[in-house]
Fold:
Amino acid sequence: MKRQLIIARERIDETALLLKRRMSDGMGAVVCFLGVVRGTEEDRTISAIEYEAFLRMAEHQFNLLFDEMEKRWPIESVRLVHRIGTVKVNEPSLWVEVVAPHRGEAFAASQWLIDEMKRVVPIWKKALT
Amino acid sequence: MEITIHFYSYFKDLTGCAQTTITVPPGGTMSDLLNHMIRRFPELGAMQNSTLTAVGVEYQGRGYVLQEGDEVSLFPPVQGG
Structure:
């Protein structure tokens, strides 16, 4: 399974990411997820979210999740971009792409990956008003 | 033996620092370390049950026996995405 992980301060460039998509003839499903900063947090209006990561551990934990994904589903590739630093409302903080032979495994794997990320990857957020 | 402890997220605000060191006796566990930290930084006490603990880049539980040179990290539940 090919994997690409980017944890960075730069804005997520969806167009550039899409242009770099590579998939073999046997692949029939691409699930792409974008997590976007909402304008409210616990009923308060906010302007942005400040993301902080324990970078070395976050990379390690993401790679453990990718290892587990590879065991569970026939995924050809996974690409994940997570921003750190200040992300304004309406801007994406997370971009995930999973390429698989069929939609069932692509949806299941991407859902599982995001759920597990929220459980184990050491990234935190702080709402800015 | 000396252990370095790193704090992340709002644990840095609760303790007023990003890292500290403590000396623990041989055989000391993560639970012992956590209790020591709560005595030093009482604000951490309210988060005791939900505090996540890691050594290096791996999660370790309360029963983990600390080793010389361990880099321990203490942080609240993660919130990526």
Observations:
- The mean pLDDT of chain A is 98.
- Residues 2-128 of chain A form a domain with the Aldehyde Oxidoreductase; domain 3 fold (CATH 3.90.1170.40).
- The first strand of chain A starts at residue 2 and ends at 8.
